[in-house]
Records
---
Amino acid sequence: MFHPNQFHVNETWIAFQLNEAPLITDRDGDFNIIALMDAASCFILGVGYVKSNALEPSHLEAKKLLKTGYDHKKQYPKEIIVPNHMVADVLILEAQSNGIKARREPKQKLEIFLNEARESFREHLGQGRMQ
């Protein structure tokens, strides 16, 4: 299992689906949230919204998500990690086109990162319904 102290700030980013079930909105339909997290600090660099019927983020969505992370740090990381179970070929290709090494890891190795972020997200959602 990975731990934040195994990484340096902005060395590795982790991309993962933040929500466990599609979010339903009255205005925009159902969607999933893809988060981009710095592995060392556990800081969420950005999120992307993907229609729940899409298999993965589009090229434009992947590009926007990586740009959001870049805007925070003014540089890309050396690598990005994506959980094995997540369909993210477009995101991986976009990362690689920006010189970022991409690798997949079992979600069990990323549980510390994913569980804490998802718990915080669930608590945030408990404060009100999205419109």
---
Amino acid sequence: MGVMSCSRKDCENIMCDTYVQSVGYICSDCKSEFKEYLQKNGLNPTTEGQINKELEKFMATSKDTYTDGNETTVDDFFNQRTR
């Protein structure tokens, strides 16, 4: 494992050992979040090209976009903020 910075927007992790040519380095936190991104969006890429395409989109998002905060519905989100 080298001291390579994750290429994802707003990610400050530096211990990355995974490199994908089209996106650069990706840390283990972002790899886990990518799996959540796929699941939450109902995506199931089955070819390298499909995975690469989704990974490129994902890497352009800010870190913790898909894991930040507790899971909720839109209605519950608004209800918690309504007086």
---
Amino acid sequence: MLAAVSGRAGRGWLRRGAWAALVAVGVIGPLLARAAWEGRGALAQADVAAAAGRVDREILHLGRAARWRVPIAGHDEAALARLMAIGEAAELRGGAGSQTALMAYREARAALLATRAWGVADRALLHAANRRIARVMAEQELVFGTDLSRAGSREAYHRALLEQAGAGGWPWAAVAAGLTAAAALLALRGPATRGRAVWGLVALGLALATWALR
């Protein structure tokens, strides 16, 4: 008798688990597919712009590709690497190239901050972008004879501001993820099919919120 009850309970858990997995795949799958599609499309547009010699548009499209971040795809990492390379090459040219360098570094930084979930995807790259932005801004201040730091520490001043602006941001995503997990657990343990469906929809909504906050 106990074995039969235990068997039915086990099969119930398996059915609920399968239902939850099906919902997760049905929702997350299309989202990931679209992000990968859009990201690769933006990367292709960046290639077209580069071939036409339009570095400004190349930077714009690379920033878009980097923002369509998908953990299992590599287009975002490729876009970020290209942005940093464009910035470095422009910075080495000096003169008017400093503005192009600043544009590329800022686009990489903005993309990293726009796609964080538990934190920044590549914190080392963010710090590198901050350092280079601060360096270029300090060099521009020297050219124009200005000093916003008012203490002769232009680069340190700008870097401190950049690091401060990029700090934090993850707690809201963590809260949304926790709520998603709680709703998913209730969906599995709900006493009735209707109740599980309702909690499943709640879990779906919170999963979308978590993805949007990443």
